[in-house]
Design a protein that fits this description.
With 157 residues, this protein is of the alpha+beta class. The chain has one domain: Gcn5-related N-acetyltransferase (GNAT) (Aminopeptidase), CATH 3.40.630.30. Helices cover 29% and strands 29% of the residues. Strand 4, helix 3 and strand 5 form a beta-alpha-beta unit. 27% of the residues are buried.
Length: 157
């Protein structure tokens, strides 16, 4: 399982993965803003993916992540999703391991993830906690699908 920088050839597969998780994240596939953000992050080498069978760009994606490095040493995980077929196979952990290697201390990493009341968001919360992220008590607006959100933060020293 190899984490690779996404290319524009991965755009279609990325949108197929996004379609799987729209019920959690809200509309993305037909949202020009999401596509624009995705294309920008790919061009800036801030989009990472794991392709099925470690395939070539354009292959189906097992998981994908946007990782904003523009304000280093403050980093932000902007999006992380795993395909339903790859759940509980270590894909999310591999993506997190990869981006954590890009960080030099001192640094801070933030992510806005699902609230405690979102059952299908619990794996994401556990993933971030496994990496040492702590929930921050800061009001965060609900996601576009209406579900609650919570900010998590990791301080790397």
């Amino acid at each position: 399982m190899r984490v690779e920088q996404a290319t524009l050839d991965d755009l279609k597969a990325w949108l197929e993965l996004a379609a799987e998780v729209e019920y959690l994240f809200g509309p993305m596939v037909d949202d020009p803003k999401f596509i624009q953000v995705l294309e920008k992050n790919i061009s800036l080498n801030r989009a990472y993916c794991i392709r099925e069978k470690d395939g070539l760009p354009g292959s189906p994606l097992l998981g994908a992540m946007l990782f904003n490095t523009a304000h280093a040493p403050t980093f932000k995980i902007g999006w992380l999703a795993v395909s339903s077929q790859a759940k509980k196979t270590g894909v999310a952990t591999a993506l997190m391991d990869h981006v954590m290697q890009l960080i030099s201390p001192p640094a801070e990493v933030t992510v806005i993830t699902f609230g405690e009341d979102i059952p299908d968001g619990q794996p994401a919360r556990r993933l971030y906690q496994k990496f040492g992220f702590l929930p921050i008590d800061e009001p965060i607006p609900n996601g576009p699908e209406g579900g609650s959100r919570q900010k998590f933060q990791l301080t790397v020293e």
